[in-house]
Amino acid sequence: MTFQPHLVAEFLIIFERVREDIRNFPGCKHLEMLVWTENKAVLFTLSRWESVEKLDEYRSSQLFKETWKKTKSLFSAPAEAWSLIDDTTKVDK
Question: What are the helix (H) ranges across 1-93?
Answer without folding.
Answer: 8-23, 52-59, 62-72
